[in-house]
Specification:
The two termini are 33 Å apart. Helix content is 37%, strand content 6%. Helix 3 crosses helix 13, helix 5 (126-140) runs parallel beside helix 9 and helix 12 (272-281) packs across helix 13. With 360 residues, it is an alpha/beta fold.
Length: 360
C-alpha cells in the first residue's frame, strides 16, 4: 500500500544503512519497562496488569499497549532485537538502549512547577533520560573518539516527547491559550536534547512530532460537545488538532535550524501527526472496524469512545475487546499493536529517503 513499508519484512535495512543500534528517548509511546522498573510502586500502575501485553507477550511487559510498540517495529525493520529498558538489571545493550519513561515530560519537574503543572507519574523527564544516556556512554565507550566511532552506526529517537507536558496541563485545567504559550519552552527542551545527543556522537537523529490528539478517545471523551462544527471530517476535534499542529510547526522550524547548524548529521522530523491521519484514512482498506476507529478496545464507559478516566484499562472489571487487531486505540490513550505496526511502516517510508545510506 502506498505510504506504508512492511516493517516485518525489512530486516535488510540495518545492512543497507549500516545501522546496528537504536537509542530511544521518550514517554509511554516508547517505554518498554523503565517506569515500572524505576518506581518502588511499579506494580501499581494499571498497564502492569492484564490485558496489557496479551497479544504478543501473553503478559504485561511495561509497554502501554496490547503488544509491540513502534520502537519494537523499528528494531525489527533494521534486523535488531527489541530494545531493553535502561533500568533493567543485567540487560543486553549491544544493539542500543531504551531510555523512554511512561509519563515523562520534555520539561523538567521544576520547569513545569513554575507553570503550575505537576507530573503525577515520574520525575524522569527528558533531561534525566539524557543523564542516563551520558552515564551509559561513559561506561561503554569512554573517550569521545570511541563514542563517535561506535555511534556513527546508531539511530537516535528524541521523542516522541512533550505530549505529556500538554496532557498534564489539560488535566489540570489549563486553557488552550495557556498551553500554546508553553510550546516554545517544550520545543526548546527537545532542541537542546538533539544538540546533546549530537554531542555524544549521534549522526542520525529522528525527532518526532505530536499526534493529532483531537482524534484520541481520551480527548474526544473529555472535550465532547454537541456542536458539530467543532469536529472535522474524521470526527476529530479541530481545536485540539490545531494545537498539536502548532507544536509540530514550531518543532519543524527548530529542526531546520539544527540542520544548518549540523550539516553532517541527518536530523529528520518524524511525522506522527500525518502518520496517524493516514491510518484513519486507510482504516477500512486495512481491515480495521470502521465503526470503532475512535473507540478504546480496552476500556469502559457508556459513551461512543469506550473511555472513562475513572475506570481505565487494567482496572478491575475492565475488559478488552475480543479482537484488538480491529481497533486503532488500545486504551483510549495509546494505540494497539497493529496500529503501531502501520504507523511505524508509514514513518519508515517517510524517514529513510532523508537519511544517507552509509556512514562508514
Amino acid at each position: 500500500m502506498a505510504g506504508f513499508m512492511n516493517v516485518e519484512k525489512a530486516g535488510e535495512l540495518g545492512r543497507l544503512y549500516h545501522l546496528d543500534k537504536i537509542y530511544q528517548l521518550g514517554d509511554s509511546i516508547s517505554d518498554t519497562g523503565n517506569l515500572v522498573l524505576e518506581s518502588p510502586h511499579g506494580s501499581g500502575f494499571l498497564f502492569t496488569r492484564p490485558p496489557y501485553g496479551e497479544t504478543t507477550f501473553g503478559k504485561p511487559t511495561g509497554r502501554c499497549s496490547n503488544g509491540l510498540l513502534m520502537v519494537d517495529y523499528f528494531a525489527t525493520a533494521f534486523g535488531l532485537p527489541y530494545l531493553e529498558p535502561y533500568k533493567k538489571a543485567h540487560a543486553n545493550f549491544k544493539h542500543g538502549v531504551n531510555f523512554a519513561v511512561a509519563g515523562a515530560t520534555a520539561l523538567s519537574e521544576e520547569a513545569l512547577k513554575a507553570k503550575n503543572i505537576t507530573n503525577p507519574a515520574t520525575n524522569s523527564s527528558l533531561s534525566v533520560q539524557l543523564e542516563w544516556m551520558a552515564s551509559h556512554f561513559n561506561s561503554t565507550c569512554h573517550a569521545k573518539e570511541g563514542c563517535w566511532k561506535m555511534l556513527r552506526s546508531a539511530l537516535f529517537f528524541v521523542g516522541e516527547i512533550g505530549g505529556n507536558d500538554y496532557n498534564y496541563g489539560f488535566v489540570q485545567r489549563k486553557t488552550l491559550d495557556e498551553l500554546t504559550g508553553l510550546v516554545p519552552d517544550v520545543v526548546q527542551s527537545i532542541t537542546d536534547a538533539v544538540r546533546r545527543v549530537i554531542g555524544f556522537g549521534a549522526r542520525r537523529v529522528i525527532v518526532p512530532g505530536n499526534f493529532p490528539i483531537g482524534c484520541l478517545p481520551i480527548y474526544l471523551s473529555s472535550f465532547h460537545t454537541n456542536n458539530s462544527a467543532a469536529y472535522d471530517e474524521k470526527q476529530c476535534l479541530k481545536d485540539l488538532n490545531n494545537f498539536a499542529e502548532i507544536h509540530n510547526e514550531v518543532l519543524k522550524a527548530s529542526i531546520n535550524v539544527l540542520k544548518k547548524e549540523y550539516p553532517y548529521v541527518d536530523i529528520v522530523y518524524g511525522d506522527y501527526y500525518n502518520a496517524y491521519l493516514w491510518l484513519l484514512s486507510h482504516a477500512k482498506r486495512l481491515r480495521f472496524d470502521r465503526n470503532s476507529l475512535q473507540k478504546a478496545c480496552c476500556g469502559s464507559g457508556s459513551g461512543p469512545y469506550n473511555f472513562d478516566p475513572r475506570k481505565m484499562c487494567g482496572a478491575e472489571g475492565v475488559s478488552a475487546c475480543p479482537n484488538p487487531d480491529k481497533y486503532i486505540s488500545w486504551d483510549g490513550i495509546h494505540s494497539t499493536q497493529r496500529a503501531y505496526k502501520y504507523i511505524a511502516g508509514y514513518l519508515l517510508r517517510s524517514i529513510l529517503p532523508q537519511m544517507r545510506m552509509f556512514h562508514l
